[in-house]
Amino acid sequence: MAPSRSPSPESLPASGKPWYAEGLRFACTQCGACCNGAGTVRVSDEEIGALARLLDLSDEQLRAMYTRRLRGGEVSLRESRAKACVFWDPERGCRVYAARPRQCRTWPFWRAVVHSRERWEEEARDCPGMNQGPLHDADTIAATAAADGTSGELP
Ligand code: SF4
Ligand code: SF4
Q1: Is the pTM higher than 0.90?
Q2: How far is the C-alpha of 44 from the C-alpha of 151, rounded, in Å?
Q3: For ligand 2, mutation pick of 35, 91, 105 (most atoms within 8 Å of CB)
Q4: How many other β-carbons are positioned within 10 Å of the β-carbon of residue 77?
Q5: Which regions in the chain score pLDDT beneath 70?
Q6: CA distances (Å), 136 to each of 3, 21, 22, 61, 65, in order?
Q7: HEC sequence for 40-60
Q8: Nearest ligand to residue 41 Cα
Q9: What gap in Å lies between CA 141 and CA 59, rounded to an integer?
């Protein structure tokens, strides 16, 4: 994904309709590109609890083994030496798919991605699932972006 950049307020033009008013297509191909070089994957206390239950660990064990603290106090999943997400398995894919954090579930409908067509198309160069598959309507996209689990910037 592209380096951090704060969204500028251009997703709602004077018409009041977002640029994606006709919806956007997306279906994950499970290529794994976004889990390799995953960068920051924010996790809430609730998500840490869900991950811990899935892996049969205590919350504290999960925190110690698989997370790191960000500047400002938030918590992210760790990365492997190869810079992949700590839960990425090259053979099996995401090892915690059923309990993956919100940030993973809401991609690519992040505020920082859908704020402009240019940004969307830039991210689509690295994510083959974007611009193909089923159409997601504008209301769903806006609601997803409003609670995307990110900081509002690309990690
Ligand atoms: S890069 Fe896109 S298509 Fe590939 S795994 Fe990630 S979300 Fe799915
Ligand atoms: S938790 Fe799973 S889906 Fe999310 S970045 Fe890690 S491997 Fe990918």
Answers
A1: no
A2: 12
A3: 35
A4: 25
A5: 1-14, 38
A6: 25, 10, 9, 38, 36
A7: CCECCHHHHHHHHHHHCCCHH
A8: 2
A9: 32
